[in-house]
Amino acid sequence: MKKLFSFLFENLLQLIYFIAFEAALYFGLQYLLFNQPFTQDTKDPTIVPRWVNVIYFILLYLGVVIGALLVLSNLVPRKHKNQVLRWFWLSLALMLPFLILLINQ
């Protein structure tokens, strides 16, 4: 029973850290890239008005997430490396909803 409680507590703590990391990353990049008022220079219609900012968001998001993966994979013990990779793939999957939120602003 104690092992099960310890396992659940570890996973809950990992989930809290993951949510805090993703929220800080999303809102930080949103503040850096999408806080300025938008002015369209040309009259040509575009599908995504701020496509340059969207590309910068994707590149910075991937850079920070891959950097965090590299740092964490060096810091955690060997038995937890598969958990770090699981959170990495979940973070990459969350990039799509984040992009949808940013594009629909």
Report the sheet with the most strands, covering strand number, pairing sense and barrel closure. Answer: none
- What structural class do the secondary elements suggest? mainly alpha
Runs with pLDDT <50, length 5+? Answer: none
Radius of gyration: 18 Å
Helix and strand element order: HHH
Helix content: over 70%
What general form does the structure show? elongated
Count of the domains: 1
Mean pLDDT metric = 86
Number of helices: 3
Distance between the termini: 47 Å
- Counted beta strands: 0
Amount of beta strand: under 5%
Give a structural overview.
α1 runs antiparallel to α2, α1 (2-34) packs parallel to α3 and α2 packs antiparallel against α3 (81-103). Helices cover 77% and strands 0% of the residues. The chain is built from 3 helices and no strands. The termini are far apart. The chain has one domain. By secondary structure, the protein is mostly helical.
